[in-house]
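Q: Give me a backbone?
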Amino acid sequence: MKIILASQSPRRKELLERMGIRDFETISPNVDESAFHGLPPEELVRRLSAEKAAAVAGKAGEDAIVIAADTVVALEGSVLGKPADELDAFKMLSALSGVRHQVHTGVTVCRGGEKQTAHEVTDVTFRELSEREIEDYIATGEPMDKAGAYGIQGYGALLIQGISGDYYNVMGLPVCRLSGMLARFGVDCLKLAARQG
C-alpha cells in the first residue's frame, strides 16, 4: 500500500515513523496559504489540510493514501504564524508569556474519491518569561521557523508550564486521531509496528 505524506516537515516525518509507518514517500504540496487568511483557526487548518491533500492526491494515483496536515498557534482566537524576524518573535513570545493558548491541527487522509478531515486542539500554558529569557531563546535560532515562535520538542519545552491534550499535536501531527483515521483506510499502525519490532 502506497502512503504519501504531503509535507517536507522533519517533525511530521518523524512522527509518522513513530506510528509504525516506515515505508512512505513525501511530496511537498503547492498551496497558496494566503488565500485562507482571516479564517478562524479551526476552519483554517481543516481547509488547508484538505487543500494540501488534494494538491498531492492528483499526482499520487488512485490507490495511494495521502496524509496532509496544517498546524497553527492561536492566542485568543488570533493566529500566530511564523515570525517575520527576531522582533516579531519577541512580540509573539511576550504575548504568550504566562498565558494559555491553543495549538490547532487539521489533518486529512484521502485515497481516490474517499476523504476524511479532522481537527485537533491542544491547550498550552507558558510560564512567565523575563525579557532576558525571551532574548536568550530567540538567540538559539529555534523560534524563527516555527508557528507561534516556539518548538515544544526543542528548547521551547523550557518555556512550557502545562499542556492539556495531545502533545504530538503541538509538534504538528495528532498521532492518536490520525491512527484512527488511517484504520478506516485499512492501515493498522500497531500491526505495522509489531512487524518491525
In short: The two ends are 20 Å apart (CA to CA).
